[in-house]
Amino acid sequence: MTSEGASANGKTQESTPPLRVGVIGLGWAGQQHLKAYRDRAEVEICALAAMEEDLLEELGEEFGVENRFTRWEQLLELEELDAVSIAVPTFLHAPIAVAALGRGLHVLTEKPIARDAQEGRQMVEAARTAGRVLDVAFNHRRRGDVQELKKVITSGELGRAYYAKASWLRRSGIPVLGSWFTNKQMSGGGPLADLGVHVLDWALHLLGEPRAVAVSASTYAELGPRGRGGMARYSAMNSEHPFEVEDFASAFIRLEDGGTLVIESSWATYREQKDLLDFMVYGSDGGAELRAVGATDAPVGQLRVFTEKDGQDADYELTAQPGTAHQGVVSDFLDAIAAGPEEWPQHDGSVALARAEIIDACYRSAEEQREVRLDHV
């Protein structure tokens, strides 16, 4: 439906109606989505859903949203919706996304796409059937330092990238011991599923999206089961569960171009106190390294490029601006929707599903203590 308004010359002209969005889940991530939507003039936030009634009322007032629900099913019944953001525990991603897509809504969900690749496939298939956008929030690939390093690698300055290593490591970072995070059935996994999927995403993004063909992984649960390594940074459902996931994971990933990617992720391990987010790559003509000590608290990390000129070392450092984080995630989602129906099939969640397939293979490799080929997943 369109509305008419008067132009500067007095003639009437049609104006585009706002894109009407709802946000499901109002923890830290959901609030980032809200702030990003508020900054876009073409968007109207018309509904919120969350279990925490106090938070629902508070944010509803702050963002001027009258439609507030304690059940996500109620939000999806609104006829005026065009799109939804999903920022809830992982076990709810698939049921909410499939239901929303089935109602013809575009969907942006937090990472990982789902608890496993099987659920992720259901979401991708639902997006294809509905002909709608399904996007997954990988905000760390939108860091300014990651984007600056991407330019270097894409330019060919480093030659053929044949080996890379990436990690996100915490010393005491298990998010809420005894919550859904540490319940295998609800979360899908520990730091490999939570942080490692980010690591995998920015690493493959930097390398130009080579296909993974095999993985060999190990997982460990040395601190969590003893009640060590916990934190209270993130909100979570107040439930009591034994520690059923890993607290450290490492994976050796063979790539189709003959290259190798090694990833590490930890919630808890005895190392320096500050978190580390990093990426290192060796190429045939040079190498590069990104180190963000403090991880997400360090909006820009140290960037170094290692190369030579005329037989002499010609290493240098790069500077970068802070990235766009969730603002960039939401902006890309809105741009994909605005591109129109002909472009929507290009945004069906396939990239996030490929990440989930690799994570699944890593868990299988760790459990069976063998290399797992992706074509057998």
From TrEMBL:
InterPro entries in UniProt: Gfo/Idh/MocA-like_OxRdtase_N, Gfo/Idh/MocA_oxidrdct_glycsds, GFO_IDH_MocA-like_dom, NAD(P)-bd_dom_sf
Keyword terms: NAD, Oxidoreductase
Domain (GFO/IDH/MocA-like oxidoreductase) ranges: 146-288
A GO molecular function held by the record: oxidoreductase activity
Domain Gfo/Idh/MocA-like oxidoreductase N-terminal: 19-138
Protein origin, superkingdom: Bacteria
Protein name per UniProt: Oxidoreductase
